[in-house]
Design brief:
heterotrimer; A alpha/beta; B mainly alpha; C mainly alpha; A: D-Maltodextrin-Binding Protein, domain 2; 13 strands; 14% strand; C: 2 domains; 12 helices; cell membrane (chain B); MetI-like_sf (chain B); Glucose ABC transporter membrane protein (chain B); membrane (chain B)
Chain lengths: 420, 302, 281
């Protein structure tokens, strides 16, 4: 250790930097996140400005890549070093994992002062708690089971907006016959699984979906309906562009926007692409629930977990962040940019567009019954290990046109078992 | 430094003089022991535990290795490495040697041409991977371009073909590294005594024969250096895959380094990720040790 | 050795040599050309045109936006790269000197261990290295990142110098020792002056490696201290929101400029250094 210390001293002299950063006078809040796109950055900036207005310092630690995979590597390294950031974009079951490590702070005081229990839907609040205490603050609710449609293309092909899977295939055939790409898609594991999850939700219904992806029930996973889900996925694959491998979802979205393709199966963040292209919901494009999943709402909730800190001033800054993230000002800007629903339930939905308003109504309806289900493809339903196992099977299945659905369900089951 | 020199003139400090080399090497030795072997040992330990989300130390014996052997993706990644590594090293060597020999023929503007061959090494794959992804994309790049230019029958869809996607990785990797191989060999060629070649020419040997039989065999050490560097690039290939295919389509272009990273960090299966790292290191060891052994033995100045 | 070969045959074979070399040049340049052309196009132009088509309107907007996004991180990379390159080269030189001129029991073993270390996939060391840096109080500091770069650059720098110095006659050192010259005197007066070529190779190699590093940069630096590769990644790998490929490509060029410049300007020293012995086994 001595030699390393000596070397470290030499190194620090060389780089003319003090060995450890001095505690800054005003509290600092460092946030690790992957909100790096133009719209998201604008939204995060409103958060930053509010924090700075409250007299704190915002330290941005943005890490893009792999849907947060790169950020997660950073976060784990920081935790191992005993130096986690104040807040990090962590969601779903992962919050429980971080909580179990004993690294998260207790936000109950902030929650009580701002009445989170009343503001947040119960299901959302439960995800934010570890051991009965708030450890994270939600920022939005995404709906995953959407179908995006270009009505001009549909009109040219004489296709009808589908509400069932059969109608979906009928429309796809019409589009294909008219020379369009029926289904715009990017061949990345998470996109493949997003389509698969919608198909499962459609064929198995919310209860079956829950049994398959939350309970990981063997009978459901290997049942006849699951085989049907795989063959439906395979059939959908035949309507996708064969050159889709590795394509980003927004490139696929652009194909629908430009009228090259007719529709895309994607979560509500796809709207940001339409908005950026100057298109208006209900007029230039249609958003409908994925056929057969009307009344269901596959959710993907972004949240910030808060780590336990030592410095008093930093804790104040952290609490301020927790408060500001749920305030209407940030919720409005952020969700308008992201295409998602505000997480607080007392918001005026007036400034939001038709799609988001519909989404809000669907959320309320789904909340009453079983319709509200966690998205598997977006890491809300299972552990990362199980999710990865499902991804492997699904993406490999979709990329092999000769794959056998009956064999796929067995692979799915055994992959999940081995990952558990 | 001058004080040391002065002190050295005094003979009692001979002892210090004898220990000085060891002292100088000591920090590096410590770094290697901790930063390389300590960490490998730690990874080794983790590979026998049920570490998932974060390291934990509950012993599970060989279970993680058994799981790994059962994992189809691991086998795809391993086979890919053999295919990718073999082709990458072979083609880079051939291209590098060929370009070096050609460049060694008193070429005008040699400096410029050399720089052109070398520049890919200067750029990170995060950057060039994107350019290659476009070039090899069937609907976007070379494929579309050549057809636009009238070559109707042209098909280049390897990037989206699970059976051929590895070749795309090979293309980009060769592009990046072959210039460096060229530089190594050009440097080697510059060290060959011209009179040997002249003598062979006098004997009536043709130029290609001279190169194949006399010049290149004399560059054996250069081959070894190039092999080491290329093997090291192949095994560590990560940025390349991440930028070009992210392992897809499906996981058809996965490589062990990528596999290890995603299971350790993104998938929360740290134990299995560690097991894959240990197997990788084991394989490297099996290949490297005989080479290192012969290399270090022959290097002694006796 | 080039003197005798093709010099006397101007004709066909000479033409073929040039043709091959020039064709190879074009192939090597294609990705760079695509990146350059794209960086000067407008997003609409990129969507409609082909990869190698000339921009309809040459616009610098991509470069301006790219500089806004990554320019601020440029200086961070300099602050990380310069000390890391210099120190790892110096330590590598000393190590190489000991391993070639002052061998002792175990020094060969150490060299073998170090070489094997070259092959260690760096992803495996992220967590334990974080732990170590945390214990040293260097977590998320530029100093810590520099230290990590030095540690994992050592294997190659040592290798370079050790191989270079093995081709220096031991007799030279023996003679100096008989004259009473000490360890550092011999290094400073005899070896260092003849090391310029290998120092160049080592500097260029280390500069390229460290400047282009993403993995260590993203894990061990944080926030405002991140190197330019991390900023570039945040730009290029952002999969939500409209993609501006012209900005991506311009940013890539900005991030790659220093290393490109080093290769263009110092490329001949690189070759010279290799010729002078770096590759002799």
């Amino acid at each position: 250790m001595n030699a390393i210390n000596r070397l470290a001293a030499v190194v620090s002299l060389a780089s003319l930097l003090p060995l450890s950063a001095l505690a800054a006078e005003p509290g600092t809040v460092e946030v690790t996140h992957w909100w790096t796109s133009g719209g998201e950055k604008a939204a995060v900036d409103t958060l930053r400005k509010q924090i700075e207005q409250d007299g704190f310092v915002w330290k941005d630690n943005a890490v893009a890549g792999g849907g947060g995979a790169a950020a997660m590597t950073v976060l784990k390294s920081r935790a191992v070093a005993g130096n986690p950031p104040a807040a990090a974009q962590v969601k779903g079951p992962d919050i429980q994992d971080w909580g179990a490590l004993g690294l998260l702070t207790n936000l109950d005081d902030v929650a009580k002062a701002n009445d989170w229990d009343a503001l947040l839907p119960t299901k959302v609040a439960d995800i934010m708690k570890y051991d009965g205490h708030y450890v994270a603050v939600p920022v939005n609710i995404h709906r995953v089971n959407w179908l995006w449609i270009n009505p001009q293309v549909f009109a040219k092909a004489g296709a009808k907006v589908p509400t069932t899977l059969d109608e979906l295939f009928a429309a796809a055939d019409k589009l294909k016959a008219a020379g369009f790409v029926p289904l715009a898609h990017g061949g990345q594991p998470w996109q493949d699984s997003t389509v698969f999850e919608d198909v499962v939700l459609s064929i198995l219904g919310p209860k079956g979906y829950h049994a398959a992806f939350v309970e990981l029930d063997e009978k459901t996973l290997t049942g006849a309906q699951m085989i049907e889900a795989f063959s439906t996925l395979q059939r959908l694959g035949t309507y996708m562009d064969p050159n889709r491998a590795g394509r980003d979802w927004n490139v696929a979205a652009a194909e629908v926007i430009n009228g090259k393709a007719g529709m895309q199966i994607m979560g509500d963040w796809a709207k940001s692409e339409w908005t950026a292209a100057g298109k208006i919901a209900g007029k230039d494009y249609e958003c409908v629930a994925f056929p057969g999943t009307q009344g269901s709402f596959a959710y993907n909730i972004d949240s910030l977990v808060m780590f336990r800190l030592k410095d008093e001033n930093d804790i104040k800054a952290q609490n301020d962040l927790a408060k500001v993230a749920l305030e209407p000002a940030f919720q409005t800007v952020f969700n308008q940019n992201k295409g998602s629903l505000p997480v607080r339930q007392d918001m005026d939905m007036g400034p939001f567009d038709a799609c988001t308003q519909k989404s809000a109504a669907d959320f309320k309806a789904a909340e009453q019954g079983d319709g509200l289900q966690p998205s598997m493809a977006h890491n809300m339903a299972t552990s990362l290990a199980v999710q990865g196992a499902i991804f492997d099977v699904v993406t490999n299945f979709l990329n092999d046109p000769k794959a056998d659905p009956a064999k796929a369900v067995k692979q799915l089951d055994s992959a999940i078992k081995s990952a558990k | 430094m001058s004080t040391i020199a002065v002190l050295n003139k005094a003979s009692p400090l001979d002892a210090l003089q004898r220990w000085l080399p060891r002292l100088v090497l000591a920090p590096s030795m410590l770094i290697v022991l901790v930063g390389f072997y300590g960490y490998i040992l730690w990874t080794f330990v983790l590979s026998f535990t049920n570490s998932s989300f974060m390291p934990s130390y509950k012993w599970v014996g060989l279970a993680q290795y058994a799981r790994l052997m059962d994992n189809d993706r691991w086998w795809v990644a391993s086979k890919n490495l053999l295919l990718f590594g073999g082709m990458f090293i072979g083609i880079s060597l051939v291209v590098g040697v060929l370009l070096a020999v050609l460049l060694d023929q008193r070429i005008r503007r040699e400096g410029f041409i050399r720089t052109v061959y070398l520049y890919p090494m200067a750029l990170s794959m995060i950057v060039t991977g994107t350019a290659w992804k476009w070039l090899l994309n069937p609907g976007l790049g070379l494929d579309k371009m050549l057809r636009d230019w009238g070559w109707e029958g042209f098909r280049l869809d390897w990037l989206v073909d699970p059976d051929r996607v590895v070749y795309c990785l090979v293309i980009a990797a060769v592009w990046q590294a072959s210039g460096f191989v060229m530089a190594l060999f050009l440097a080697g060629l510059r060290g060959v005594d011209p009179s040997i070649i002249r003598a062979a020419q006098v004997d009536g040997a043709s130029l290609p024969t001279i190169y194949l039989r006399i010049v290149l065999p004399s560059l054996r050490p250069v081959f070894f250096s190039a092999l080491m560097i290329l093997a090291h690039i192949a095994i560590k290939s990560f940025d390349l895959v991440a930028a070009m295919t992210a392992g897809g389509p499906g996981y058809a272009s996965d490589l062990p380094a990528m596999f290890m990273y995603s299971f350790t960090f993104s998938r929360g299966q740290m134990g299995m990720g560690s097991a894959s790292a240990i197997l990788m290191l084991g394989a490297i060891l099996a290949i490297l040790v005989p080479y290192l052994y012969s290399e270090l033995r022959s290097k002694r100045h006796e | 050795m080039s003197s005798s070969l093709a010099a006397r045959r101007p004709s066909l074979s000479r033409l073929a040599v040039y043709a091959t070399l020039i064709a190879a040049c074009l192939v090597y340049l294609v990705p760079l050309i695509v990146m350059l052309l794209t960086s000067f196009k407008s997003p609409d132009d990129i969507r409609t045109g082909n990869l190698l088509s000339w921009p309809e309107v040459i616009t610098g907007i991509g470069w301006v936006k790219a500089w806004d996004a990554v320019g601020g991180y440029f200086w961070n990379s300099v602050k990380i790269t310069v000390p890391a390159v210099l120190i790892s080269t110096l330590v590598g030189a000393l190590n190489g000197y000991v391993l070639s001129m002052w061998r002792f029991r175990g020094s060969q073993l150490f060299f073998g261990l170090l070489l094997f270390g070259c092959f260690l996939p760096f992803q495996t060391v992220l967590l334990p290295a974080s732990f170590t840096l945390g214990k040293l109080g260097l977590a998320s500091t530029t100093t810590g990142l520099v230290l990590v770069h030095i540690v994992y650059g050592l294997a190659f720098t040592t290798l370079f110098f050790r191989n270079y110095y093995t081709s220096v006659p031991q007799a030279l050192v023996q003679a100096a020792r008989l004259d009473g010259a000490g360890f550092f005197t011999i290094f400073g007066r005899i070896l260092l002056p003849m090391s310029i070529p290998i120092i160049m190779v080592c500097l260029i190699w280390q500069f390229t490696q460290i400047w282009n590093d993403f993995l260590f940069g993203v894990v061990f630096a944080s926030g405002d201290a991140q190197p330019i590769t991390v900023a570039l990644n945040n730009l290029v790998n952002t999969s939500t929101g409209a993609k501006e490929y012209n900005v991506d490509m311009a940013a890539a060029m900005i991030a790659g400029l220093p290393t490109l410049l080093v290769y263009v300007l110092a490329g001949k020293y690189f070759l010279r250094g290799l010729t002078a012995g770096a590759v002799k086994g």
